[in-house]
Hints:
The structure is a homodimer of 208-residue chains.
Chain A: H1 14-39, E1 43-48, E2 54-59, H2 62-69, H3 89-129, H4 135-182
Antiparallel strand pairs in A: 1-2
Helix pairs in contact in A: 3-4
The structure holds a DNA duplex (17 and 17 nucleotides).
InterPro entries (chains A, B): TF_MADSbox, TF_MADSbox_sf
Organism (chains A, B): Linum tenue
Pfam families (chains A, B): SRF-TF
Amino acid sequence: MGRRKIEMKMVTDRSCRQVTFSKRRTGLFKKANELATLCAVQIAIIVFSPGGKPFSFGNPGVEPVVGRFLNRGDEHHDGQSEPSGSATGRSERLVEELNGIQRRIQLEKKRGEALEKALARAKASAAAAGGGSDSLISRSVEEMGMEELVEMRRRLVDLREQLDGRAVEMEASSTLLLLSNKSESAGDSRGGSWGGGRRRRSVAKWRD
Amino acid sequence: MGRRKIEMKMVTDRSCRQVTFSKRRTGLFKKANELATLCAVQIAIIVFSPGGKPFSFGNPGVEPVVGRFLNRGDEHHDGQSEPSGSATGRSERLVEELNGIQRRIQLEKKRGEALEKALARAKASAAAAGGGSDSLISRSVEEMGMEELVEMRRRLVDLREQLDGRAVEMEASSTLLLLSNKSESAGDSRGGSWGGGRRRRSVAKWRD
DNA sequence: AGAGCTATATATAAGTG
DNA sequence: TCACTTATATATAGCTC
């Protein structure tokens, strides 16, 4: 969206990263505000700057939205509201978190597919331009293969780095989630047929 | 940003509003993902659809970010504090599943980046044109590269399929786990599929 | 619903003061 | 580091299937 296209990789330069963060944070909040305005919905965004400073946006505020998400009431909205006393709140929240993860997977999948298509087109294009010789294509493919090998190696290294620390975070939060859930009675009646191995969507409670 | 400029007022038509919500929510999450990637920051978004259904995005997850915000927020905080504890066997498994999914997301992301690079290279190579190439030597390398590509793609496609099934499985299984939390029995074990619903594809624990 | 498809509206990477 | 500008890259409104 600027003079040049940038790679979706962490900006290495601290200064540039800070600038990018500020600009994009502004843009993100603006988008969130538009979404809230156009669709009259509750939304909350929490983001920590590279320096660790917290920034937030919320309609009508961060706490009401987070609270609602965490199932602590505040259902002052027209839509459906949790049956009071429901013990499935946390479960549903976890499910939504999982759904969120699933959506991210879908996003990445889409991106991958788009890239594959583009790659295919590029190769076809190169083939057409190359006339009778396939040397160009061969060279491209060859380089790509080499590139892949290098990338794969780097990928593994990066991956391990990213996982360290993240796994810890995930573990802590997830554990808290589960432990806190334990103290409640789950007495939900809908689950009668769970043991039978019903597959797919069972907890759909919202209409979207 | 479309064919026509729209007023920043609530979209009156319910149907249009829903469509707008879906599109913009997708765009917002995408932006958030980019921000998180480019600047390596923690971010969480929670939004309720017009119908009241919750959607969320989080890097590394909603819970970690919200928790950090609530506990150490410089701007807001409601004094919420979570008790800490150790993981149980069951939660450990769930945590591992979550971590696994997170790892896969990272892999997908990396894959996209790699393909993107390859694409750029292919284009550049094709554009540069004129490059002579000897069929003798590069032939073998070419074939190797080709095989490499084909093989890698196959594996990636497999991974994608697994991820899709896995995510769905996680959703159902987690819900089952939590709902039947008090009945208990746990048992489990690493290898098997969960309680009831398995899918045809047995998910091989990472390694390939 | 949900997946494309443009024509436009916006966001924003660099550049400039 | 900020405030602005500007050339490009993206997002998306309205449609179609």
